Amino acid sequence: MSAESDLAARIRYVLVRTSHPGNIGSAARAIRTMGFDRMALVAPHRFPDKEASALAAGADDVLENASVSDGLVDALAGTSLALGLSARRRGVDLEEISPREAATRALAAAARGEQVALVFGNERTGLENEELARCHAMVRIPSVDDFSSLNLSQAVQVMAYELRVASLGEVSVPVRADAEPPADAARMERFFEHLSQMLDDIDFHKGRAPTTIMLRLRKLFQRAQPDERELRVMHGIFADAQRMAQIANDKLKAPKGD
């Protein structure tokens, strides 16, 4: 396998809740023309479908090898960098980058041996806030304000082109000081679940809705990109906090002596 194809194999295009099978086929054609072949589908409305095959225009291998999952977390399994495409700013406070910057980051991560996902939402509604919150940054294609919405396969083509152009040049590859790769998406999700449970156990929210603070903490840790050893330390801290909270609760509930 050449270095170029090796990098391409670490980049997957994730299409979330795609309504029209033709767009799946057109997206398959778009990435195949730029040297990519990894596609992941999340809860597609119809797939496989003859319209997808027709509009793939020969990119049948992309469709045949596409993974299909019910949720985004499964589609991101193994990835340590996820970049979400959005046509408009959302309520999620994420770093916003251009397609060119996204391509540079994606290739740099792939060159370090990491798995990368480019995430595209439903044709009509785009990515939901909860889906964008699972990404490390939001990518906006700089279309005109009064007609900003691109067809799904067009957006895929823009990103595939930028990645192709970047791969033909020299890509700067930042090196982490500890040389440990970031934890993948599945481990990060388990970490966030433990974090959420720990905050509940120590009554951190005190009756307030936890949504906002969890989104902020998710952004913080996604930006930090901790590795597995760092996550183990954090899990240990959470477990100790939970243990101490349980001891305190038990003391409160214990019957008092005369």
UniProtKB/TrEMBL annotation:
The protein's enzyme class: transferase
Record-level GO BP terms: methylation
Recorded superkingdom: Bacteria
TM segment ranges: none
Cleaved signal peptide residues: none
Keyword field: Cytoplasm, Methyltransferase, S-adenosyl-L-methionine, Transferase, tRNA processing
Limits of the tRNA/rRNA methyltransferase SpoU type domain: 12-161
Keyword Glycosyltransferase assigned: no
Chief location: cytoplasm
InterPro entries per the UniProt record, alphabetical: Alpha/beta_knot_MTases (IPR029028), RNA_MeTrfase_TrmJ/LasT (IPR004384), SpoU_MeTrfase (IPR001537), tRNA_m1G_MTases_N (IPR029026)
Pfam families, sorted: SpoU_methylase
Compartment list: Cytoplasm
Gene Ontology MF terms: methyltransferase activity
Catalytic activity: uridine(32) in tRNA + S-adenosyl-L-methionine = 2'-O-methyluridine(32) in tRNA + S-adenosyl-L-homocysteine + H(+); cytidine(32) in tRNA + S-adenosyl-L-methionine = 2'-O-methylcytidine(32) in tRNA + S-adenosyl-L-homocysteine + H(+)
Function: Catalyzes the formation of 2'O-methylated cytidine (Cm32) or 2'O-methylated uridine (Um32) at position 32 in tRNA.
Similarity annotation: Belongs to the class IV-like SAM-binding methyltransferase superfamily. RNA methyltransferase TrmH family.
Subunit record text: Homodimer.
Protein's name in the database: tRNA (cytidine/uridine-2'-O-)-methyltransferase TrmJ
Organism: Dyella kyungheensis
Upper classification of the organism: Bacteria, Pseudomonadati, Pseudomonadota, Gammaproteobacteria, Lysobacterales
